[in-house]
Amino acid sequence: MRVRMLLAAASLVVLSQAPAWSGRPVTEEERMKLVAALAAEGCSGGEMEFDDGLYEVEDATCPGRQRIRSDF
């Protein structure tokens, strides 16, 4: 019985933290800075988010290269 209660409590803690594991959309100001940084590298597009303390750009297109994923 005690093990079940412990497992139930642990699962509630884990489930309550799930939203913290996913990234958040970037703000318009952040998006403008990321677009400028990508343009400086000759890249464009991609999906942008802020996750784990980093800005992430997935599937950006760069000339002469395949799509890239980069963390800033």
- Proportion of β residues? 25-35%
How many helices? The count is 2
Beta strands, count:
4
Q: Which stretches are poorly predicted, pLDDT < 50 over at least 5 residues? A: 1-16
Question: Which percent bin holds the helix content?
Answer: 40-55%
**N/C terminus separation:** 48 Å
* Main beta-sheet strand count, sense and barrel state: 4 strands, antiparallel
Strand order of the largest sheet: 1-2-3-4
> How would you sum up the global shape?
globular
Q: Specify Rg, calculated over alpha carbons.
A: 19 Å
The average pLDDT is 75
Keywords summarizing the entry:
disordered N terminus, alpha+beta, 2 helices, four-stranded antiparallel beta sheet, 72 residues
Write the layout of secondary structure elements.
Elements: H1 2-21, E1 24-25, H2 28-40, E2 47-51, E3 54-60, E4 68-71
Antiparallel strand pairs: 1-2, 2-3, 3-4
Report on this structure.
46% of the residues lie in helices and 25% in strands. It has 72 residues and is α+β, with helices and mostly antiparallel strands. It has helices at 2-21, 28-40, and strands at 24-25, 47-51, 54-60, 68-71. The protein is built from two helices and four strands. It has a domain at 23-72. A four-stranded antiparallel beta sheet has the order 1-2-3-4, with helices on one face. The chain starts with a helix and ends with a strand.
